[in-house]
Amino acid sequence: MENVSNQSIWGDEGFSAILSMKSLPEIIKIISRDTSPPLWNIFEHLVFQTLGTDEIYIRGLAFTFFLGAVFFTYKIGSFLFNKRTGFLAAILTFLNPFFFSYAFEGRMYSILALGVTSSMYFFLKKMWKSYVLATLWALYSHHFAFFALFVQGIWFLYDFLFGEKKVAQKMFKAFLTIGVAYTPWLLPLYRQTKMVGGGFWLGKPDSKNFIGLVFDYLATGIRSSIKLPFIDIKISILALLLVFISLLIKNWFENYKKTFFLLSWFLIPIIATWTISQYFQSIFFNRYLLYSIPAGMLLLVSNRQKASNIVFAFLIIIFAIVDYNYFTHPDKLPFKEYASFIKQNKREGDFLINWNSKSHHLWETKYYGIPAPIYISEGAGNLPFFVGTALMEEKDIIRKIPDSAKRVGVITSGPIDEISLPGYTEVEVKTFERLKFILYEKG
Predict the structure, then answer these.
(1) Which of 294, 328, 362 is the last residue of a domain?
(2) Per residue in 268-293, pLDDT tens?
(3) Can you tell me the distance from the alpha carbon of 422 to that of 60, in angstroms, rounded to the nearest whole number?
(4) In this structure, are 309 and 410 located in the same domain?
């Protein structure tokens, strides 16, 4: 049965998979010209070398890192409060709809979450050697780990000014060690920052985007259509109401310093990226900051009143229903089925292309073994860097259909009426949800 763990990959996952199939030196070289650090691709490469390249292995790797993040959420809750709080926080983190939706994503999001949660745990425990390793793990997973490091820097200043000076000194040495160990990636980071600063695909967020992201992280991360019987209200909205109730009756003044630490971990990365996006280049994007979710769940369950246990019981049930529905109803485009159809119906001499619509499907077609370069009409501009140009080869882009091509198969998920192939006539259309395969014949 197809589910989220074995569903078709999509474009960004395909990019990562194709990159991870290369040698480690090539991975480092290519990704340094893209927009992220290399740790996910290194691990994915090792999985490909030992287990294979099937979707189940890609998603299994992501899920393993996801479980690691849940484990460290438990450890943080147990350390700051008690094991019961840690266990409840871990359950809610595991079931959190937004976090769960990226538990199987073949990208760097779960490995980033593991890096940040483990870094926060070792930071709190003052286990500096482990802290250095965990923080480097996070930084080499995704650049947005810097915002978590910024939170820790604020607490370093607090300890330096008002706390124990010896602890602050050890903390500072740990920061220095991290800086030295991150030095090899400073030049790629500078280049990647310059690329993003020159223009990115994200739009400028407004206050609704900010509030929406917070709500998604707390409860509504999966837009479930399931409604309560006899009441015209979606269960995801009910979950959010339960979250508000738990926050309202929470004892905010008990263990206030610990509460403020969790609040800073949850909110500061969100506020920082939203603010940067207002005045500089927009970088505000929900999946880049999902490592804040464990803090949100810890915040919910800590210093709770007895009455809130009933609230959390209902919240766990709702989260589980939403997650189960998501897990059993894959939402990625059915590229496996689509690719199988193309392979079965392709004739010798047929020429296949990826139509350059709002998005192309070069990486999916490469992953599923379909040779189909991106077609860009003559006179059109070059592709922007954020569609994966660092990994593209010369043969991956064409500007002219070969004269010998009697039939051309077009791969797209965009509108059919935007396709223009002078000299060719549309003869067949096959659709797979939003995916379309349009066959054209010359003349």
Answers:
(1) 328
(2) 999 999 999 999 989 999 999 999 99
(3) 45
(4) no
